[in-house]
Design brief:
Number of strands: 12
Structural class: alpha/beta
Strand content: 5-15%
Number of domains: 2
Radius of gyration: 54 Å
Largest sheet: 7 strands, mixed
Length: 544
């Protein structure tokens, strides 16, 4: 097992993009040392560490364990201490096997199959319930995953034991991680099997419904053929009688039409004659008016009287003729309406007699149509019920597929070939005052450059060194959430941390202190600490 296991180490600090000078390991330790000292609560001055105020218990580089595990062409990320927990909701399907068994039993007859469909419309309406499965240590936060996928590119293989740092032992060892991954694999297989069962039920439903629909359509064709032959024979025997009825009524209609049209012709002739008489009278009236005007000019009083009397007689004749033309128009209108009514009545009587003769054909056609309609309604019901059930199954398939996709796409997109125990470095400082320990954690950082803003901070009395190391990512920093509370709440774990911290303390050996001293000098050269701060830190190192 140990031969297969790879161990990787990630860097604590990397230079910022705008930093031109290298950031050495000596500078890293010096930066953490100076920051920790600045944050230590002091009593009688910076050189009097063991008087009132806090004393430094240790300042050590720790390594937080994480696991990278191959997974579906990707890599799962696990929190080695198991502080992070991921909950997966597994939706329990209705009993698909029982549904399929009942379907296969009922498919033999349409009646049984129809009853089966109508009785199971809500079978797949919802999942039966949910089961919550907790995967210890599994990291799924998208931002953390994204940041870690970039961070992992900077990892280096651990080829030999590292004495200058404390490696936290993973609470989730190889066997536990393997078991968790197997649980995920089993869950993935279960979801795939669920989808397979659901799709099988959908296919079986569709095929069975198509089979019955095909049989019903065949029955419709047989019904159509059977009734069409019967209707053809009936029409053949009854069409002659219907033709005789139509011919008889056609003669009646023709005769009556001619009678009315002759009457209309006479009326139109009379109307034309009266209109001509009216025109003649109107012309005579014009002449009378002209003669009256002429007599007035000639002062022929007797003539004027005679023409006025003639004008009155003409007007009386015109009035009588206009009344006559109105009466003629009414007679024409009445005759025309009578023609329409009588022809419509005769046609209605004809159609009624023909319909009575052909009623038997219509009865047979109605029986045919009713039988076909019932079959078509049966088809519609089978299709509608099947569609309802299939749509609900498809909805469950969609949800299962989404759950499977979410499961398959967990982790980092980059694939590793085998398990890798990957350590994330951080610095942990412990200050003690009396019997109380106070811890400061420095997560993986980016080493900045001495920009204009940092210089301004120094002018206003703000320690520039505090701007040197900035967390490389808020998401990466969340990996350590809960670690300090765990230390403070668990005395056994705290003692292990203290022991490991003292052993890996960056100040414990003279060689390490010399490296820190060189790092401080480099920080002073770049302007991160002042000359007086350098002297103070040097004196502190000398006294350690």
């Amino acid at each position: 097992m140990a031969k297969k296991l790879r161990k990787l180490m990630l860097p604590f600090a990397v230079p910022a993009e705008d930093r031109r000078a290298p950031f050495t390991s000596n500078m890293e330790k010096a930066a953490v040392f100076s920051l920790a000292e600045m944050e230590r609560k002091k009593g009688g001055g910076i050189l009097k560490r063991k008087e009132s105020g806090e004393e430094l218990v240790f300042n050590a580089k720790f390594c937080y364990p994480t696991w990278l595990v191959p997974w579906n062409g990707r890599s799962l990320l696990f929190d080695g201490l198991g502080k992070i927990k991921h909950k997966i909701d597994y939706n329990v399907l209705p009993d698909v096997d029982a549904f399929i068994t009942d379907l296969q039993v009922s498919e033999k007859t349409r009646e049984a199959y129809s009853a089966f469909l109508s009785g199971n419309l809500n079978f797949f309406k919802n999942f039966l319930g949910g089961e919550e499965r907790v995967i210890d240590g599994l990291v799924t936060d998208p931002e953390l995953i994204q940041e870690f996928s970039v961070y992992i590119k900077e990892a280096k293989v651990i080829g030999k034991p590292l004495a200058d740092r404390a490696l936290l032992s993973p609470a989730l060892d190889y066997s536990i991680i393997s078991s968790l991954v197997q649980d995920l694999s089993n869950l993935s297989s279960t979801i795939k099997e669920d989808i397979k069962k659901l799709r099988r039920a959908m296919k079986l439903l569709s095929n069975t419904t198509q089979k019955h629909v095909k049989a019903i359509r065949g029955r419709i064709e047989e019904t159509q053929k059977e009734f069409d032959e019967k209707i053809k024979d009936l029409k053949s025997s009854l069409s002659k009688k219907a033709t005789q009825i139509r011919e008889r009524y056609d003669k009646k209609i023709t005769r009556r039409t001619k009678e009315i049209e002759r009457k209309l012709h006479r009326l139109h002739q009379k109307s034309v004659k009266v209109e001509k008489d009216i025109q003649g009278i109107k012309a005579k009236i014009e002449r009378c008016n002209a003669e009256i005007r002429s007599s007035r000019l000639k002062k022929d009083e007797p003539g004027e009287i005679r023409w006025k009397e003639e004008l009155e007689r003409c007007k009386e004749k015109l009035s009588a003729l206009e009344e006559s033309i109105k009466d003629i128009d009414k007679d024409i209108e009445s005759a025309t309406a009578a023609k329409k009514q009588e022809i419509a009545k005769l046609r209605a009587e004809r159609d009624e007699e023909v319909e009575a003769v052909m009623k038997e054909v219509k009865d047979v056609e109605a029986a045919r149509d009713a039988k076909i309609r019932m079959s078509e309604q049966e088809i519609d019901s089978l299709k509608d019920w099947t569609t309802t059930i299939v749509d609900r199954i498809d909805d469950l398939v969609t949800k299962k597929a989404a759950a499977l996709e979410e499961l398959d796409e967990m982790g980092i997109s980059k694939r590793i070939r085998k398990y890798a125990l990957t350590y994330v470095p951080f610095y942990l400082v412990c200050h003690r005052e009396g019997s109380n320990n106070r811890y400061i954690l420095y997560p993986p950082s980016v080493a900045g450059s001495m920009g204009l803003l940092t210089k301004f901070k120094g002018v206003f009395g703000v320690a520039k060194a505090k701007s040197l190391l900035q967390p490389r990512s808020n998401a990466i920093a969340t990996l350590f959430d809960g670690l300090l509370p765990l230390i403070e709440q668990n005395p056994v774990f705290e003692q292990e941390i203290v022991d490991a911290g003292i052993e890996a303390d960056i100040l414990q050996s003279e060689g390490s202190r010399k490296k820190i001293k060189r790092g401080l000098e480099q920080l002073e050269e770049e302007g991160w600490i002042s000359e007086s701060e350098l002297q103070t830190f040097d004196e502190l190192l000398a006294r350690t």
